[in-house]
Amino acid sequence: MNPALTLATARRILLQLRHDPRTVAMLIVVPSLLMVLLRFVFNSEAVFSRVAPALLGVFPFLIMFLITSITTLRERTTATLERLMTLPIGRMDLLFGYALAFGSIAIVQVGVAAGVSLAWLGLDIAGSIGMLLLIAVLDALLGMALGLFVSAFARTEFQAVQFMPLFVLPQILLCGLFVPRGEMGWLLNWLSNVMPLSYAVEALTRVTTSGTVDATLIRNLIIVGACALAALVLGAATLRRRTP
C-alpha cells in the first residue's frame, strides 16, 4: 500500500463531496436531528441518557453503510474504478483512501451529534467524552467498511440498499439496544456475540455508566476495530473494476 496514493484517493473523494453540499449537510445533520427527535419522543432526560449512547453508534453505522455502498457502486458502474485501476494504484490504496475520506466525515458527523446531545439534549455520561467519540467513530468506520465490502456483490444501487436488511438490521436488533443480550434465547444470544455492533454498543454503554477503562472495554474496541479492518481487506479482495 502506497500512502501517497491512499491520500490522493481520499482527497479526490473529499473534493467530490465538496461539490455536493446537500449530501454533506445530510451526512452531518441527520444523526443530530434524529437524536433531537428521540429526545422529545422519550420526553425524559433519564431515559434519553440511557438509550442515546448506543444510538450515537447505531446512527453513524447505518448512514455510513448506505452512503459508502452506494458511492462505491456508482463509481464502478460509471467506469470510474475501471479507469483508476489502469493506473499504478492498488486495491488497498483505493479502499483505505475511501476509509480515510469517509472516516474524516464520520468524525465530524459523530462530533456534531455528540455535541448536540451533551450540550442541549441533556445526555449525561460518566466516562470520557473523548472515549465516547472514539467508539462512535469506530462504529461509523465499521459501517463504512461493511458498505465497501457488500458493494462488490451488488449490480445496481437498489441491490446495494437491499443488503441493509441482511448486514445492518440484524445487528441493530440484536446489539442489546432493545432487549439486553443476556435475556435473549441461546440462538439469538449466540448470533449477537458474533456481530461487531453488539460490542460497540456494549462499549458505549460502559463509557456512559462508568469512567473506568477496563479490560472489557479495551476488548470491545479491539473487536470493533478488527472487524472494520477485516471488512476493508475483504472489500479489497473482492473489488472489481466494473459491474458485469
TrEMBL record:
Coiled-coil region list: none
The protein's name: Transport permease protein
All copies of domain ABC transmembrane type-2, residue ranges: 14-242
Entry similarity comment: Belongs to the ABC-2 integral membrane protein family.
Superkingdom of the source species: Bacteria
Organism: Amycolatopsis japonica
One Pfam match: ABC2_membrane
A GO cellular-component term linked to this record: ATP-binding cassette (ABC) transporter complex
Principal location: membrane
GO terms classed as biological process: response to antibiotic
Lineage: Bacteria, Bacillati, Actinomycetota, Actinomycetes, Pseudonocardiales
PANTHER family cross-referenced by the UniProt entry: MEMBRANE COMPONENT OF ABC TRANSPORTER YHHJ-RELATED, TRANSPORT PERMEASE PROTEIN
Membrane-spanning residues: 21-42, 54-73, 94-123, 129-153, 160-179, 217-239
Keywords for the protein's UniProt record, in alphabetical order: Antibiotic resistance, Cell membrane, Membrane, Transmembrane, Transmembrane helix, Transport
GO molecular function: ABC-type transporter activity
Protein location: Cell membrane
Cross-referenced PROSITE patterns: ABC_TM2
Topological relation to the membrane, as annotated: Multi-pass membrane protein
